[in-house]
């Protein structure tokens, strides 16, 4: 479950919904992908390996609910992948996810209840942190990215609360869900008892992924350690999230195949490695092999740029430039983006003259089009800001960034990630000018937009927490600094290998903060700050544009 506050749905939920929509558009019957991923995960578990073979040999779409309710690899892997937004695993399980969702849709349509009201229950334990989020969000939303099992039987649900266990880190929760059956829900749900492996014992109702509830009240159950959390089903859509959804869907609609839509979505979400993965799976992205080869090189260039391999990125982008012909001239926005990427790469390599040349090419092309793309004009201002910032002209950089930001705010959804990255650029200018409070405010704005536009484990969110942590420490707000440092570390742990140098730097920073809070004597005198030395523990963690 992901908890929403102030009636807002965050970027994590939005991204999962877009990905879910694409999963439901797939049509292939691919048990092999499921079996391959599951065997890798359960390589030393004979019982689950037997279930995997059974599934591979006997599975029928009509049995999706029965398979889900059995104690097998499917329930565990599907919900974990949906919860953590492991896009590659979710895609591998697309056949089963699609079958399960469609079966729930069908059952809901077939079994319209004659009763207008329905009360369902779900028992589980929550960490104290998650429970505090619930308590502070009464009247707000609770969104569920996974499939969700509930029961008509309150006594059955109570068995899953863990409410009798004395554990200071968790709370037993009984969710009580009030449903008006004549209202439209955000996702299908149905009574699945007749199909369940536990037929007749649990009176189970299953909700599909993407269900949204409103939190009505939270009270302690009399004479019990369990909390009763009352929810109501809703189809509420946050306006800001919906605007960004519509904007991203416009990009998806231009794609010819479902797999090319997955590639496009991963590009929009700034996951270049996953974009390349989906591109390579598609054998029919373009009928024109020249365009197909150009697009592949472009994606590899993006991956190199994301990995700070600037020479490699430049090599692939230049190959794209060499291969471009009249086919690509029909896609001027592609060409603009290519010029800007080459310009960005030259900035990273310190060749500012060539950076300016390619950014100017992109700008001139954008101005020559029948309809001027204001976001391309904004990009030109921002990239000019990058160049003059490299020249240590902070005042000029700030002017360029602010011009670009104004255009982005005027022409993009308010939660678009480009706005977040521009706030971050402005924050770095203020940081270089030693305007710490102003830098902090800009990073906080960046974080707010990123949370609303990106997957919860996106590297940019982790990087922004790290920057905020540093500035809070400079301002002697040590406890807050530790909180953001831990957030950076925890998010990084979901995306980086334990041996990645970034993880060590972030762990070192958190350890330093803990010692500093404990000792109260690691602060430098304000007048003797060497700002580069101050950040030595985390220098090089991420790109300054993050």
TrEMBL record:
Any one GO molecular function term: NAD+-protein-arginine ADP-ribosyltransferase activity
Catalysed reactions, as listed in the record: L-arginyl-[protein] + NAD(+) = N(omega)-(ADP-D-ribosyl)-L-arginyl-[protein] + nicotinamide + H(+)
Protein EC: 2.4.2.31
SUPFAM superfamilies: ADP-ribosylation, TPR-like
The MalT-like TPR region domain, residue ranges: 294-490
Keywords, sorted A to Z: Glycosyltransferase, NAD, NADP, Nucleotidyltransferase, Repeat, TPR repeat, Transferase
Leader sequence segment: none
Domain of life, per lineage: Eukaryota
Residues in TPR repeats: 420-453
Entry-linked PROSITE patterns: TPR, TR_MART
InterPro entries per the UniProt record, alphabetical: ART (IPR000768), TPR-like_helical_dom_sf (IPR011990), TPR_MalT (IPR041617), TPR_rpt (IPR019734)
Family: Belongs to the Arg-specific ADP-ribosyltransferase family.
Protein name: NAD(P)(+)--arginine ADP-ribosyltransferase
Species the sequence originates in: Rotaria socialis
